[in-house]
Amino acid sequence: MCKLAVIALGGNALLRGNQSGTIDEQEQNTTDTLENLIFLLEEGYNLVVTHGNGPQVGNILMRNDAGEQIYDIPQMPLDICVADSQGGIGYMIERMMHNVLKKHNIKREIVTLVTMVEVDKSDPAFENPTKRVGRIYNKEQSGKLAKDKGWEFREEVKVKEGWRRVVPSPQPVSILNYKVVETMARSGTIVIASGGGGIPVYYDENGNVRPAEAVIDKDLAGSLLASSVGADEFYILTDVSYVYINFNKPDQQVVEFLNLADTRKYLAEGMFAEGSMAPKIRACMQFIEKGGEMSVITEAFKLADKKFGTKITMEYED
Amino acid sequence: MCKLAVIALGGNALLRGNQSGTIDEQEQNTTDTLENLIFLLEEGYNLVVTHGNGPQVGNILMRNDAGEQIYDIPQMPLDICVADSQGGIGYMIERMMHNVLKKHNIKREIVTLVTMVEVDKSDPAFENPTKRVGRIYNKEQSGKLAKDKGWEFREEVKVKEGWRRVVPSPQPVSILNYKVVETMARSGTIVIASGGGGIPVYYDENGNVRPAEAVIDKDLAGSLLASSVGADEFYILTDVSYVYINFNKPDQQVVEFLNLADTRKYLAEGMFAEGSMAPKIRACMQFIEKGGEMSVITEAFKLADKKFGTKITMEYED
Lengths: 318, 318
Hints:
17 strands; homodimer; alpha/beta; Carbamate kinase; 36% helix; globular
Protein backbone atom coordinates (compact mmCIF):
# COMPACT_ATOMS: atom_id res chain seq x y z
CA MET A 1 0.00 0.00 0.00
CA CYS A 2 1.26 3.49 -0.85
CA LYS A 3 2.34 5.71 2.02
CA LEU A 4 -0.12 8.41 3.02
CA ALA A 5 1.06 11.84 4.19
CA VAL A 6 -0.96 14.71 5.63
CA ILE A 7 0.57 18.14 5.00
CA ALA A 8 -0.47 21.17 7.06
CA LEU A 9 0.28 24.43 5.23
CA GLY A 10 0.61 27.37 7.57
CA GLY A 11 2.50 30.56 8.22
CA ASN A 12 4.18 31.75 5.08
CA ALA A 13 3.15 28.73 2.99
CA LEU A 14 0.22 30.82 1.70
CA LEU A 15 1.00 34.39 2.72
CA ARG A 16 4.21 35.96 4.05
CA GLY A 17 4.14 38.31 6.98
CA ASN A 18 5.26 41.35 5.02
CA GLN A 19 2.62 40.96 2.29
CA SER A 20 -0.72 42.75 2.07
CA GLY A 21 -2.66 39.68 0.95
CA THR A 22 -3.42 40.30 -2.71
CA ILE A 23 -4.49 37.23 -4.64
CA ASP A 24 -1.30 37.38 -6.76
CA GLU A 25 0.89 37.11 -3.65
CA GLN A 26 -1.18 34.21 -2.28
CA GLU A 27 -1.09 32.32 -5.59
CA GLN A 28 2.68 32.68 -5.96
CA ASN A 29 3.42 31.55 -2.39
CA THR A 30 1.05 28.61 -2.78
CA THR A 31 2.73 27.54 -6.02
CA ASP A 32 6.19 27.75 -4.42
CA THR A 33 4.96 25.63 -1.51
CA LEU A 34 3.27 23.01 -3.68
CA GLU A 35 6.46 22.60 -5.74
CA ASN A 36 7.94 21.21 -2.52
CA LEU A 37 5.35 18.42 -2.39
CA ILE A 38 6.23 17.03 -5.81
CA PHE A 39 8.97 14.76 -4.48
CA LEU A 40 6.41 13.01 -2.26
CA LEU A 41 4.16 12.36 -5.26
CA GLU A 42 7.13 11.14 -7.29
CA GLU A 43 7.95 8.72 -4.46
CA GLY A 44 4.38 7.37 -4.79
CA TYR A 45 2.82 8.95 -1.71
CA ASN A 46 -0.88 9.67 -1.41
CA LEU A 47 -1.54 13.16 -0.06
CA VAL A 48 -4.02 15.03 2.08
CA VAL A 49 -3.40 18.79 2.32
CA THR A 50 -4.75 20.98 5.09
CA HIS A 51 -4.08 24.67 5.65
CA GLY A 52 -4.40 27.69 7.91
CA ASN A 53 -6.75 30.59 7.26
CA GLY A 54 -5.67 33.27 9.75
CA PRO A 55 -5.11 36.27 7.45
CA GLN A 56 -7.93 35.27 5.08
CA VAL A 57 -10.65 34.73 7.69
CA GLY A 58 -9.42 37.86 9.47
CA ASN A 59 -10.09 39.79 6.26
CA ILE A 60 -13.48 38.11 5.80
CA LEU A 61 -14.48 39.15 9.33
CA MET A 62 -13.35 42.73 8.67
CA ARG A 63 -15.31 42.80 5.41
CA ASN A 64 -18.40 41.57 7.28
CA ASP A 65 -17.98 44.44 9.70
CA ALA A 66 -17.48 46.94 6.85
CA GLY A 67 -20.41 45.58 4.82
CA GLU A 68 -22.73 46.05 7.76
CA GLN A 69 -21.46 49.58 8.37
CA ILE A 70 -21.75 50.81 4.80
CA TYR A 71 -24.49 48.67 3.23
CA ASP A 72 -26.39 47.24 6.21
CA ILE A 73 -25.70 43.69 5.01
CA PRO A 74 -26.29 41.15 7.82
CA GLN A 75 -23.00 39.85 9.22
CA MET A 76 -22.44 36.12 8.92
CA PRO A 77 -21.48 34.17 12.06
CA LEU A 78 -17.93 32.87 12.51
CA ASP A 79 -18.73 29.34 11.28
CA ILE A 80 -19.92 30.68 7.91
CA CYS A 81 -16.81 32.90 7.66
CA VAL A 82 -14.53 29.90 8.28
CA ALA A 83 -16.51 27.90 5.69
CA ASP A 84 -16.15 30.78 3.20
CA SER A 85 -12.38 30.78 3.79
CA GLN A 86 -12.21 27.01 3.22
CA GLY A 87 -13.91 27.53 -0.14
CA GLY A 88 -11.68 30.37 -1.30
CA ILE A 89 -8.34 29.03 -0.03
CA GLY A 90 -9.13 25.42 -0.95
CA TYR A 91 -10.00 26.43 -4.50
CA MET A 92 -6.79 28.46 -4.78
CA ILE A 93 -4.65 25.53 -3.57
CA GLU A 94 -6.53 23.11 -5.86
CA ARG A 95 -6.05 25.27 -8.95
CA MET A 96 -2.35 25.92 -8.21
CA MET A 97 -1.90 22.18 -7.59
CA HIS A 98 -3.42 21.43 -11.03
CA ASN A 99 -0.84 23.67 -12.64
CA VAL A 100 2.13 22.40 -10.61
CA LEU A 101 1.18 18.78 -11.43
CA LYS A 102 0.81 19.71 -15.11
CA LYS A 103 4.34 21.15 -15.10
CA HIS A 104 5.70 17.89 -13.68
CA ASN A 105 3.48 15.73 -15.89
CA ILE A 106 1.81 14.05 -12.90
CA LYS A 107 -1.81 12.98 -13.25
CA ARG A 108 -3.91 12.93 -10.09
CA GLU A 109 -7.47 13.97 -9.31
CA ILE A 110 -7.59 16.86 -6.79
CA VAL A 111 -10.61 17.68 -4.65
CA THR A 112 -11.37 20.23 -1.95
CA LEU A 113 -13.78 19.24 0.82
CA VAL A 114 -15.57 21.70 3.06
CA THR A 115 -14.93 20.14 6.47
CA MET A 116 -16.67 20.30 9.83
CA VAL A 117 -14.72 19.33 12.95
CA GLU A 118 -16.48 18.27 16.13
CA VAL A 119 -15.61 19.95 19.41
CA ASP A 120 -16.88 19.22 22.92
CA LYS A 121 -19.16 21.92 24.35
CA SER A 122 -17.86 21.04 27.83
CA ASP A 123 -14.27 21.76 26.71
CA PRO A 124 -12.87 24.23 29.31
CA ALA A 125 -11.79 26.46 26.41
CA PHE A 126 -15.42 27.64 26.17
CA GLU A 127 -15.08 29.14 29.66
CA ASN A 128 -11.91 30.99 28.72
CA PRO A 129 -11.91 32.41 25.16
CA THR A 130 -8.36 33.28 24.10
CA LYS A 131 -8.24 33.35 20.30
CA ARG A 132 -8.31 36.92 18.95
CA VAL A 133 -10.32 37.35 15.74
CA GLY A 134 -11.49 40.22 13.53
CA ARG A 135 -10.75 43.91 13.80
CA ILE A 136 -9.68 46.15 16.66
CA TYR A 137 -12.51 48.23 18.17
CA ASN A 138 -12.45 51.11 20.61
CA LYS A 139 -14.02 50.72 24.03
CA GLU A 140 -17.40 52.16 23.06
CA GLN A 141 -17.69 50.02 19.93
CA SER A 142 -16.63 46.85 21.71
CA GLY A 143 -19.09 47.55 24.53
CA LYS A 144 -21.94 47.93 22.06
CA LEU A 145 -21.00 44.74 20.19
CA ALA A 146 -20.71 42.81 23.46
CA LYS A 147 -24.24 43.92 24.28
CA ASP A 148 -25.77 43.50 20.78
CA LYS A 149 -24.09 40.29 19.68
CA GLY A 150 -22.86 38.72 22.90
CA TRP A 151 -19.24 38.83 21.77
CA GLU A 152 -16.44 38.74 24.36
CA PHE A 153 -13.58 41.22 24.11
CA ARG A 154 -10.03 41.51 25.43
CA GLU A 155 -7.91 44.59 25.50
CA GLU A 156 -5.05 44.69 23.00
CA VAL A 157 -1.65 45.63 24.28
CA LYS A 158 0.36 48.17 22.29
CA VAL A 159 -2.85 49.76 20.97
CA LYS A 160 -4.53 52.77 22.57
CA GLU A 161 -8.16 51.93 23.34
CA GLY A 162 -7.83 48.69 21.40
CA TRP A 163 -10.28 45.86 22.01
CA ARG A 164 -10.56 42.66 20.07
CA ARG A 165 -13.11 39.89 20.02
CA VAL A 166 -11.90 36.64 21.57
CA VAL A 167 -13.38 33.22 20.86
CA PRO A 168 -12.68 29.83 22.41
CA SER A 169 -10.08 27.53 20.89
CA PRO A 170 -11.30 24.05 21.90
CA GLN A 171 -9.63 20.72 21.14
CA PRO A 172 -10.77 18.93 17.98
CA VAL A 173 -12.66 15.72 18.84
CA SER A 174 -13.48 14.23 15.43
CA ILE A 175 -13.29 15.10 11.74
CA LEU A 176 -16.81 14.58 10.37
CA ASN A 177 -15.83 13.32 6.92
CA TYR A 178 -12.57 11.51 7.65
CA LYS A 179 -13.80 8.26 6.09
CA VAL A 180 -14.47 9.95 2.77
CA VAL A 181 -11.10 11.72 2.97
CA GLU A 182 -9.33 8.40 3.58
CA THR A 183 -11.16 6.54 0.79
CA MET A 184 -10.41 9.25 -1.74
CA ALA A 185 -6.80 9.77 -0.66
CA ARG A 186 -6.04 6.03 -0.77
CA SER A 187 -7.42 5.89 -4.32
CA GLY A 188 -4.73 8.41 -5.32
CA THR A 189 -6.84 11.57 -5.23
CA ILE A 190 -5.13 14.54 -3.58
CA VAL A 191 -7.61 15.75 -0.95
CA ILE A 192 -7.61 19.30 0.44
CA ALA A 193 -9.59 19.28 3.70
CA SER A 194 -10.12 20.74 7.16
CA GLY A 195 -8.88 24.22 6.26
CA GLY A 196 -8.49 26.71 9.08
CA GLY A 197 -8.72 23.90 11.64
CA GLY A 198 -12.17 22.97 10.29
CA ILE A 199 -15.57 24.51 10.91
CA PRO A 200 -16.18 23.92 14.65
CA VAL A 201 -19.47 22.14 15.37
CA TYR A 202 -20.91 20.12 18.23
CA TYR A 203 -23.71 17.61 18.67
CA ASP A 204 -26.53 18.94 20.83
CA GLU A 205 -28.62 16.81 23.20
CA ASN A 206 -30.85 15.74 20.28
CA GLY A 207 -27.91 14.70 18.13
CA ASN A 208 -28.22 17.71 15.84
CA VAL A 209 -25.06 19.34 14.50
CA ARG A 210 -24.77 22.94 15.75
CA PRO A 211 -22.14 25.57 15.00
CA ALA A 212 -19.68 26.49 17.76
CA GLU A 213 -18.47 30.08 17.71
CA ALA A 214 -14.84 29.06 18.07
CA VAL A 215 -11.58 28.56 16.20
CA ILE A 216 -9.70 25.24 16.24
CA ASP A 217 -5.90 25.21 16.03
CA LYS A 218 -5.15 24.09 12.49
CA ASP A 219 -2.14 21.94 13.46
CA LEU A 220 -4.13 20.05 16.13
CA ALA A 221 -6.97 19.51 13.63
CA GLY A 222 -4.42 18.43 11.02
CA SER A 223 -2.87 15.96 13.46
CA LEU A 224 -6.29 14.49 14.27
CA LEU A 225 -7.09 14.26 10.56
CA ALA A 226 -3.75 12.49 9.98
CA SER A 227 -4.44 9.94 12.75
CA SER A 228 -8.05 9.46 11.66
CA VAL A 229 -7.14 8.57 8.08
CA GLY A 230 -4.27 6.34 9.27
CA ALA A 231 -1.56 8.48 7.70
CA ASP A 232 2.07 7.37 7.94
CA GLU A 233 3.57 10.84 8.06
CA PHE A 234 2.42 14.29 9.19
CA TYR A 235 4.15 17.46 8.00
CA ILE A 236 3.73 20.96 9.45
CA LEU A 237 5.04 23.55 7.00
CA THR A 238 5.84 26.83 8.71
CA ASP A 239 8.35 29.69 8.60
CA VAL A 240 11.32 28.02 10.28
CA SER A 241 13.53 25.22 8.96
CA TYR A 242 14.02 23.55 12.33
CA VAL A 243 12.74 23.38 15.86
CA TYR A 244 15.17 24.87 18.38
CA ILE A 245 15.80 24.13 22.02
CA ASN A 246 16.91 27.00 24.23
CA PHE A 247 15.65 29.28 21.47
CA ASN A 248 17.08 32.83 21.64
CA LYS A 249 19.47 31.85 24.45
CA PRO A 250 23.27 31.53 24.28
CA ASP A 251 23.05 27.76 24.06
CA GLN A 252 20.33 27.77 21.37
CA GLN A 253 20.49 24.51 19.46
CA VAL A 254 18.86 23.13 16.33
CA VAL A 255 17.32 19.68 16.71
CA GLU A 256 16.96 17.57 13.61
CA PHE A 257 15.79 14.34 15.26
CA LEU A 258 13.59 13.95 18.33
CA ASN A 259 12.04 10.89 19.92
CA LEU A 260 8.70 11.12 21.68
CA ALA A 261 10.12 10.95 25.23
CA ASP A 262 12.64 13.75 24.68
CA THR A 263 10.03 15.88 22.92
CA ARG A 264 7.69 15.47 25.87
CA LYS A 265 10.51 16.36 28.28
CA TYR A 266 11.52 19.50 26.37
CA LEU A 267 7.89 20.58 26.14
CA ALA A 268 7.45 20.14 29.91
CA GLU A 269 10.64 22.15 30.48
CA GLY A 270 9.11 25.07 28.53
CA MET A 271 11.60 24.80 25.65
CA PHE A 272 8.89 25.60 23.08
CA ALA A 273 6.99 28.90 23.08
CA GLU A 274 3.25 28.81 23.74
CA GLY A 275 1.29 30.45 20.93
CA SER A 276 4.08 29.55 18.52
CA MET A 277 6.05 26.27 18.52
CA ALA A 278 4.39 24.51 21.48
CA PRO A 279 1.02 23.78 19.76
CA LYS A 280 2.88 22.48 16.70
CA ILE A 281 4.95 20.19 18.94
CA ARG A 282 1.79 18.94 20.66
CA ALA A 283 0.16 18.25 17.28
CA CYS A 284 3.23 16.27 16.21
CA MET A 285 3.37 14.32 19.49
CA GLN A 286 -0.33 13.42 19.33
CA PHE A 287 0.18 11.99 15.85
CA ILE A 288 3.05 9.76 17.05
CA GLU A 289 1.19 8.74 20.23
CA LYS A 290 -1.71 7.52 18.07
CA GLY A 291 0.57 5.35 15.94
CA GLY A 292 1.91 7.67 13.25
CA GLU A 293 5.45 6.95 12.03
CA MET A 294 6.93 10.41 11.70
CA SER A 295 5.98 14.05 12.24
CA VAL A 296 8.05 16.75 10.53
CA ILE A 297 8.20 20.50 11.21
CA THR A 298 9.99 22.43 8.51
CA GLU A 299 9.98 25.51 6.31
CA ALA A 300 7.34 25.50 3.58
CA PHE A 301 9.77 26.21 0.74
CA LYS A 302 12.40 23.71 1.97
CA LEU A 303 10.42 20.49 2.43
CA ALA A 304 11.85 18.95 -0.73
CA ASP A 305 15.38 19.35 0.64
CA LYS A 306 15.32 16.63 3.27
CA LYS A 307 18.36 17.93 5.11
CA PHE A 308 16.07 20.58 6.62
CA GLY A 309 13.29 19.97 9.13
CA THR A 310 12.89 18.47 12.59
CA LYS A 311 11.73 14.86 12.48
CA ILE A 312 9.83 13.47 15.47
CA THR A 313 9.45 9.70 15.79
CA MET A 314 8.64 7.19 18.56
CA GLU A 315 12.29 6.13 18.95
CA TYR A 316 15.50 7.51 17.54
CA GLU A 317 16.68 5.52 14.55
CA ASP A 318 19.77 3.37 15.18
CA MET B 1 -28.23 0.03 -9.53
CA CYS B 2 -29.87 2.78 -7.49
CA LYS B 3 -31.28 5.74 -9.35
CA LEU B 4 -29.19 8.91 -9.24
CA ALA B 5 -30.83 12.35 -9.09
CA VAL B 6 -29.22 15.78 -9.31
CA ILE B 7 -31.14 18.52 -7.49
CA ALA B 8 -30.53 22.20 -8.27
CA LEU B 9 -31.62 24.43 -5.38
CA GLY B 10 -32.35 27.96 -6.48
CA GLY B 11 -34.61 30.92 -5.94
CA ASN B 12 -36.39 30.62 -2.64
CA ALA B 13 -34.94 27.20 -1.80
CA LEU B 14 -32.27 29.02 0.24
CA LEU B 15 -33.50 32.59 0.57
CA ARG B 16 -36.91 34.13 -0.16
CA GLY B 17 -37.21 37.38 -2.05
CA ASN B 18 -38.64 39.33 0.88
CA GLN B 19 -35.91 38.29 3.35
CA SER B 20 -32.80 40.26 4.29
CA GLY B 21 -30.47 37.25 4.24
CA THR B 22 -29.72 36.57 7.89
CA ILE B 23 -28.25 33.16 8.60
CA ASP B 24 -31.37 32.13 10.54
CA GLU B 25 -33.56 32.75 7.49
CA GLN B 26 -31.20 30.84 5.23
CA GLU B 27 -30.98 27.88 7.60
CA GLN B 28 -34.76 27.61 7.99
CA ASN B 29 -35.43 27.78 4.23
CA THR B 30 -32.71 25.21 3.57
CA THR B 31 -34.16 22.84 6.16
CA ASP B 32 -37.66 23.20 4.66
CA THR B 33 -36.25 22.47 1.21
CA LEU B 34 -34.20 19.47 2.29
CA GLU B 35 -37.26 17.94 3.98
CA ASN B 36 -38.64 17.67 0.45
CA LEU B 37 -35.71 15.46 -0.65
CA ILE B 38 -36.35 12.82 2.00
CA PHE B 39 -38.83 10.87 -0.13
CA LEU B 40 -36.12 10.39 -2.79
CA LEU B 41 -33.73 8.96 -0.19
CA GLU B 42 -36.49 6.73 1.18
CA GLU B 43 -37.06 5.44 -2.36
CA GLY B 44 -33.35 4.51 -2.46
CA TYR B 45 -32.06 7.29 -4.70
CA ASN B 46 -28.49 8.52 -4.63
CA LEU B 47 -28.31 12.31 -4.58
CA VAL B 48 -26.13 15.14 -5.82
CA VAL B 49 -27.21 18.61 -4.69
CA THR B 50 -26.19 21.82 -6.42
CA HIS B 51 -27.34 25.33 -5.59
CA GLY B 52 -27.44 28.99 -6.58
CA ASN B 53 -25.45 31.72 -4.85
CA GLY B 54 -26.92 34.97 -6.19
CA PRO B 55 -27.79 36.80 -2.97
CA GLN B 56 -24.82 35.36 -1.07
CA VAL B 57 -22.11 36.17 -3.63
CA GLY B 58 -23.77 39.56 -4.15
CA ASN B 59 -23.26 40.22 -0.45
CA ILE B 60 -19.67 38.93 -0.56
CA LEU B 61 -18.89 41.32 -3.43
CA MET B 62 -20.45 44.22 -1.53
CA ARG B 63 -18.42 43.33 1.57
CA ASN B 64 -15.25 43.27 -0.54
CA ASP B 65 -16.08 46.76 -1.73
CA ALA B 66 -16.82 47.95 1.80
CA GLY B 67 -13.70 46.32 3.25
CA GLU B 68 -11.52 48.11 0.74
CA GLN B 69 -13.24 51.45 1.47
CA ILE B 70 -13.01 51.29 5.26
CA TYR B 71 -10.01 49.07 5.99
CA ASP B 72 -8.03 49.10 2.73
CA ILE B 73 -8.22 45.29 2.51
CA PRO B 74 -7.39 44.07 -1.02
CA GLN B 75 -10.52 42.98 -2.87
CA MET B 76 -10.60 39.36 -3.97
CA PRO B 77 -11.38 38.60 -7.62
CA LEU B 78 -14.76 37.13 -8.62
CA ASP B 79 -13.50 33.51 -8.74
CA ILE B 80 -12.43 33.65 -5.09
CA CYS B 81 -15.77 35.23 -4.12
CA VAL B 82 -17.66 32.41 -5.86
CA ALA B 83 -15.40 29.85 -4.13
CA ASP B 84 -16.06 31.53 -0.77
CA SER B 85 -19.80 31.29 -1.40
CA GLN B 86 -19.49 27.59 -2.26
CA GLY B 87 -17.79 27.04 1.08
CA GLY B 88 -20.33 28.95 3.16
CA ILE B 89 -23.50 27.78 1.41
CA GLY B 90 -22.25 24.22 0.95
CA TYR B 91 -21.44 23.94 4.64
CA MET B 92 -24.87 25.32 5.58
CA ILE B 93 -26.65 22.80 3.32
CA GLU B 94 -24.43 19.96 4.59
CA ARG B 95 -25.11 20.76 8.24
CA MET B 96 -28.87 21.16 7.72
CA MET B 97 -28.85 17.89 5.75
CA HIS B 98 -27.20 16.12 8.71
CA ASN B 99 -29.99 17.28 10.97
CA VAL B 100 -32.82 16.48 8.55
CA LEU B 101 -31.41 12.97 7.99
CA LYS B 102 -31.09 12.52 11.76
CA LYS B 103 -34.75 13.40 12.20
CA HIS B 104 -35.73 10.75 9.64
CA ASN B 105 -33.22 8.23 10.95
CA ILE B 106 -31.43 8.00 7.60
CA LYS B 107 -27.70 7.30 7.61
CA ARG B 108 -25.68 8.70 4.71
CA GLU B 109 -22.30 10.38 4.43
CA ILE B 110 -22.59 13.98 3.19
CA VAL B 111 -19.73 15.90 1.56
CA THR B 112 -19.37 19.34 0.02
CA LEU B 113 -16.92 19.75 -2.85
CA VAL B 114 -15.51 23.06 -3.99
CA THR B 115 -16.03 22.80 -7.76
CA MET B 116 -14.40 24.42 -10.78
CA VAL B 117 -16.29 24.43 -14.08
CA GLU B 118 -14.48 24.83 -17.39
CA VAL B 119 -15.63 27.48 -19.83
CA ASP B 120 -14.36 28.27 -23.34
CA LYS B 121 -12.47 31.57 -23.60
CA SER B 122 -13.73 31.88 -27.20
CA ASP B 123 -17.35 31.68 -25.99
CA PRO B 124 -19.10 34.72 -27.54
CA ALA B 125 -20.37 35.59 -24.05
CA PHE B 126 -16.91 37.02 -23.30
CA GLU B 127 -17.51 39.66 -26.00
CA ASN B 128 -20.87 40.61 -24.52
CA PRO B 129 -20.96 40.62 -20.69
CA THR B 130 -24.57 40.59 -19.49
CA LYS B 131 -24.61 39.25 -15.93
CA ARG B 132 -24.96 42.05 -13.36
CA VAL B 133 -22.95 41.53 -10.16
CA GLY B 134 -22.08 43.49 -7.04
CA ARG B 135 -23.29 46.92 -5.96
CA ILE B 136 -24.70 49.90 -7.82
CA TYR B 137 -22.18 52.72 -8.38
CA ASN B 138 -22.64 56.28 -9.60
CA LYS B 139 -21.13 57.37 -12.90
CA GLU B 140 -17.93 58.77 -11.39
CA GLN B 141 -17.30 55.67 -9.24
CA SER B 142 -17.99 53.27 -12.10
CA GLY B 143 -15.71 55.24 -14.40
CA LYS B 144 -12.86 55.05 -11.89
CA LEU B 145 -13.36 51.30 -11.34
CA ALA B 146 -13.48 50.70 -15.09
CA LYS B 147 -10.13 52.48 -15.37
CA ASP B 148 -8.49 50.98 -12.23
CA LYS B 149 -9.73 47.41 -12.42
CA GLY B 150 -10.82 46.99 -16.03
CA TRP B 151 -14.40 46.21 -15.03
CA GLU B 152 -17.23 46.73 -17.53
CA PHE B 153 -20.37 48.56 -16.47
CA ARG B 154 -23.95 48.88 -17.67
CA GLU B 155 -26.45 51.50 -16.66
CA GLU B 156 -29.24 50.31 -14.38
CA VAL B 157 -32.75 51.24 -15.35
CA LYS B 158 -35.01 52.63 -12.62
CA VAL B 159 -32.00 54.01 -10.71
CA LYS B 160 -30.74 57.58 -11.04
CA GLU B 161 -27.06 57.51 -11.96
CA GLY B 162 -26.94 53.78 -11.35
CA TRP B 163 -24.18 51.70 -12.89
CA ARG B 164 -23.46 48.04 -12.25
CA ARG B 165 -20.59 45.78 -13.14
CA VAL B 166 -21.42 43.21 -15.81
CA VAL B 167 -19.50 39.99 -16.36
CA PRO B 168 -19.80 37.32 -19.07
CA SER B 169 -22.08 34.34 -18.56
CA PRO B 170 -20.46 31.64 -20.74
CA GLN B 171 -21.69 28.09 -21.31
CA PRO B 172 -20.25 25.42 -19.00
CA VAL B 173 -18.01 23.01 -20.94
CA SER B 174 -16.94 20.48 -18.30
CA ILE B 175 -17.14 19.89 -14.55
CA LEU B 176 -13.56 19.35 -13.39
CA ASN B 177 -14.31 16.79 -10.66
CA TYR B 178 -17.34 15.00 -12.09
CA LYS B 179 -15.67 11.57 -11.82
CA VAL B 180 -15.14 11.99 -8.09
CA VAL B 181 -18.70 13.27 -7.70
CA GLU B 182 -20.07 10.22 -9.54
CA THR B 183 -17.95 7.72 -7.59
CA MET B 184 -18.97 9.18 -4.25
CA ALA B 185 -22.65 9.62 -5.14
CA ARG B 186 -22.95 6.04 -6.45
CA SER B 187 -21.47 4.77 -3.17
CA GLY B 188 -24.43 6.39 -1.36
CA THR B 189 -22.73 9.60 -0.23
CA ILE B 190 -24.82 12.73 -0.71
CA VAL B 191 -22.58 15.12 -2.66
CA ILE B 192 -23.05 18.90 -2.64
CA ALA B 193 -21.16 20.33 -5.62
CA SER B 194 -20.88 23.01 -8.29
CA GLY B 195 -22.53 25.75 -6.21
CA GLY B 196 -23.29 29.04 -7.93
CA GLY B 197 -22.76 27.40 -11.34
CA GLY B 198 -19.21 26.48 -10.35
CA ILE B 199 -16.03 28.56 -10.25
CA PRO B 200 -15.44 29.46 -13.92
CA VAL B 201 -11.98 28.49 -15.18
CA TYR B 202 -10.36 27.86 -18.56
CA TYR B 203 -7.28 26.06 -19.82
CA ASP B 204 -4.70 28.43 -21.27
CA GLU B 205 -2.41 27.60 -24.21
CA ASN B 206 0.00 25.83 -21.84
CA GLY B 207 -2.74 23.70 -20.29
CA ASN B 208 -2.76 25.67 -17.05
CA VAL B 209 -6.06 26.28 -15.28
CA ARG B 210 -6.83 30.01 -15.10
CA PRO B 211 -9.74 31.85 -13.51
CA ALA B 212 -12.37 33.39 -15.79
CA GLU B 213 -14.01 36.55 -14.45
CA ALA B 214 -17.48 35.29 -15.26
CA VAL B 215 -20.61 33.73 -13.78
CA ILE B 216 -22.06 30.46 -15.09
CA ASP B 217 -25.82 29.89 -15.00
CA LYS B 218 -26.34 27.45 -12.13
CA ASP B 219 -29.09 25.49 -13.90
CA LEU B 220 -26.95 24.96 -17.03
CA ALA B 221 -24.01 23.89 -14.84
CA GLY B 222 -26.35 21.62 -12.86
CA SER B 223 -27.64 20.05 -16.09
CA LEU B 224 -24.07 19.42 -17.29
CA LEU B 225 -23.17 17.93 -13.90
CA ALA B 226 -26.25 15.68 -14.10
CA SER B 227 -25.31 14.45 -17.60
CA SER B 228 -21.64 14.03 -16.67
CA VAL B 229 -22.36 11.78 -13.69
CA GLY B 230 -24.96 9.82 -15.70
CA ALA B 231 -27.88 10.88 -13.51
CA ASP B 232 -31.34 9.50 -14.25
CA GLU B 233 -33.28 12.57 -13.10
CA PHE B 234 -32.58 16.28 -12.87
CA TYR B 235 -34.67 18.56 -10.63
CA ILE B 236 -34.71 22.36 -10.68
CA LEU B 237 -36.27 23.69 -7.48
CA THR B 238 -37.51 27.25 -7.88
CA ASP B 239 -40.35 29.54 -6.78
CA VAL B 240 -43.13 28.25 -9.03
CA SER B 241 -44.95 24.92 -8.89
CA TYR B 242 -45.29 24.56 -12.66
CA VAL B 243 -44.08 25.86 -15.98
CA TYR B 244 -46.74 27.87 -17.83
CA ILE B 245 -47.33 28.45 -21.51
CA ASN B 246 -48.85 31.78 -22.53
CA PHE B 247 -47.81 33.02 -19.08
CA ASN B 248 -49.67 36.19 -17.97
CA LYS B 249 -51.98 36.00 -21.04
CA PRO B 250 -55.71 35.22 -21.10
CA ASP B 251 -55.04 31.65 -22.30
CA GLN B 252 -52.27 31.01 -19.70
CA GLN B 253 -51.98 27.28 -19.11
CA VAL B 254 -50.13 25.06 -16.65
CA VAL B 255 -48.19 22.21 -18.25
CA GLU B 256 -47.51 19.16 -16.13
CA PHE B 257 -45.98 16.93 -18.81
CA LEU B 258 -43.83 17.96 -21.76
CA ASN B 259 -41.95 15.91 -24.32
CA LEU B 260 -38.70 17.19 -25.79
CA ALA B 261 -40.15 18.16 -29.17
CA ASP B 262 -42.99 20.23 -27.71
CA THR B 263 -40.62 21.87 -25.21
CA ARG B 264 -38.32 22.88 -28.06
CA LYS B 265 -41.28 24.23 -30.06
CA TYR B 266 -42.62 26.31 -27.15
CA LEU B 267 -39.15 27.68 -26.44
CA ALA B 268 -38.73 28.71 -30.10
CA GLU B 269 -42.16 30.38 -29.97
CA GLY B 270 -40.96 32.53 -27.04
CA MET B 271 -43.34 30.92 -24.55
CA PHE B 272 -40.70 31.03 -21.79
CA ALA B 273 -39.25 34.32 -20.52
CA GLU B 274 -35.52 34.93 -21.06
CA GLY B 275 -33.72 35.64 -17.82
CA SER B 276 -36.32 33.59 -15.98
CA MET B 277 -37.86 30.32 -17.21
CA ALA B 278 -36.05 29.99 -20.57
CA PRO B 279 -32.59 29.09 -19.16
CA LYS B 280 -34.21 26.54 -16.84
CA ILE B 281 -36.04 25.01 -19.81
CA ARG B 282 -32.78 24.87 -21.80
CA ALA B 283 -31.01 23.19 -18.87
CA CYS B 284 -33.80 20.59 -18.68
CA MET B 285 -33.75 20.00 -22.45
CA GLN B 286 -29.97 19.54 -22.54
CA PHE B 287 -30.22 16.89 -19.84
CA ILE B 288 -32.83 14.93 -21.85
CA GLU B 289 -30.92 15.40 -25.14
CA LYS B 290 -27.85 13.82 -23.52
CA GLY B 291 -29.80 10.76 -22.39
CA GLY B 292 -31.35 11.75 -19.06
CA GLU B 293 -34.74 10.20 -18.28
CA MET B 294 -36.64 13.08 -16.74
CA SER B 295 -36.17 16.76 -15.88
CA VAL B 296 -38.50 18.36 -13.35
CA ILE B 297 -39.13 22.04 -12.61
CA THR B 298 -41.08 22.60 -9.40
CA GLU B 299 -41.41 24.63 -6.24
CA ALA B 300 -38.73 23.95 -3.64
CA PHE B 301 -41.15 23.25 -0.81
CA LYS B 302 -43.47 21.07 -2.94
CA LEU B 303 -41.12 18.51 -4.48
CA ALA B 304 -42.27 15.76 -2.17
CA ASP B 305 -45.85 16.21 -3.39
CA LYS B 306 -45.50 14.69 -6.84
CA LYS B 307 -48.74 16.19 -8.14
CA PHE B 308 -46.83 19.46 -8.50
CA GLY B 309 -44.08 20.17 -10.99
CA THR B 310 -43.56 20.11 -14.75
CA LYS B 311 -41.95 16.89 -15.94
CA ILE B 312 -39.98 16.95 -19.19
CA THR B 313 -39.14 13.62 -20.86
CA MET B 314 -38.08 12.45 -24.34
CA GLU B 315 -41.57 11.16 -25.19
CA TYR B 316 -44.90 11.50 -23.44
CA GLU B 317 -45.72 8.43 -21.43
CA ASP B 318 -48.50 6.29 -22.93
